[in-house]
Amino acid sequence: MRIHEYQAKRILAGHGLRVPRGEVADSPDRVGEIARKMGSPVVLKAQVHAGGRGRGGGIRSAETPERAEELGRAMIGMNLVTTQTGPGGKLVRRLLVEEAVPPARELYLGVAVDRGREAAVVLASTEGGMAVEEVAVGRPEAIFKEYFRPGPGLRSFQARSLAFRLGLTGDIHKQAVRFIDGLTEVFESQDASLVEVNPLVVTPDGNVLALDAKMTFDDNALFRHPDIRELRDPEEESPLEVEAERFNLQYIKLEGRIGCLVNGAGLAMATMDLIRHAGGTPANFLDIGGGASEEGVANAFRILVSDPGVRAALINIFGGIVRCDLVANGIVRAARELRTRVPVVIRFEGTNVEEGKRVLRESGLAFHPAAGLKEAADMAVALSRPPGGESS
Q: Known catalytic residue: 127?
């Protein structure tokens, strides 16, 4: 789960970390009101779940309240397109109106999960303000790392080492160490998967503060954090993903043409790989899990074919706890209700496979049965292609 910048900064401030003064506005009048109250130049920042806002026109400066209100009128309601939104962009519904902070230095600081090391890692760099992915590719030596495990946490000497490698000395070094410690505390205490400050700035008067902030959280731990769960903004998420969550389905929307419905994450990944190998592109990751009911399968199928980008569906079930006949009944039920014209390729193996195939045959619906996974992938790719033969 992701949250907005203004929400992330409130969490940082709640842990004693310095952030610029700022308030959120959802109307141009409110933008002007906040700017007048601050009595100084302000920065207007579009609150969307995407990076690269500055390059897309989502971050603007205003010297006067009148100019802030004028910019607010242009920005609220705009469709912001960045490198992370995709060509469709995101609608800007609110702005963070923040005091303008002139940086003397811009640094990068983040805490993330390193699955390869099975540990958390603090990332720091002198290349603040840039996309850390670009720095990692072009100048990997500019990214400093310190690993730690939950429980013992980051050691004091590790935080001091990172601050020294950032070239910080004196009181600014002490502030940076406190900031690093505070960021790891936020990461651990809130069950975050990423806490990122880019840039972390050193101001001309010698203060260290977060000029930007990004946080994502482990969905599986949100039951421990009802306050964090309340920060979710469904308008920033795929409507299909929000719908799937209502039914405890693991669904991630992608940009391809072939919808996938599978039981088990490993089988789902293998199915997506074979679709790519056959020349197609998966439209989603959808795992119904091991304990799906007929109702759950029907809902999963409905969500699958509701994606307007889906040109064919591939249902790949290896029956274990989930029986093939239960899945077949759910699919038949949903297909009859929806009267979908999306071609559906189905491959069944495992528990009650013959009964599942019988249900499909006797349904009178035009499913496309496949004997094996490779055949299913090839068939789905072929069916997803338009008559002109355009790539799927």
A: no
Pick the catalytic residue from 5, 98, 108, 188: 108
Q: Is 188 a catalytic residue?
A: no
Q: How many CA atoms lie within 13 A of 234 on its CB side?
A: 9
Domain spans in the chain, listed from the N-terminal domain onward: 21-99, 105-229, 238-384
Q: Would you tell me which CATH number, out of the four given (3.30.1490.10, 1.10.10.10, 3.30.420.10, 3.30.470.20), belongs to the domain 105-229?
A: 3.30.470.20
Q: Which of 127, 196, 251, 294 is catalytic?
A: 196
CATH superfamily of 238-384: Succinyl-CoA synthetase domains (3.40.50.261)
> Residue 378 corresponds to which amino acid?
D
List the pLDDT tens digit at each of the 392 positions of the chain.
899 999 999 999 999 999 999 999 999 999 999 999 998 899 999 999 988 888 889 999 999 999 999 999 999 999 999 888 878 789 999 999 999 999 999 999 999 999 999 999 999 999 888 777 788 788 888 899 999 998 889 999 999 999 999 999 999 999 999 999 999 999 999 999 999 999 999 999 999 999 999 999 998 899 999 999 999 888 887 778 877 877 778 888 888 999 999 998 899 999 999 999 999 999 999 998 877 888 989 999 999 999 999 999 999 999 888 899 999 999 999 999 988 889 999 999 999 999 999 999 999 898 999 989 999 999 999 999 876 555 55
Question: What is the CATH architecture assignment of 21-99?
Answer: 2-Layer Sandwich (3.30)
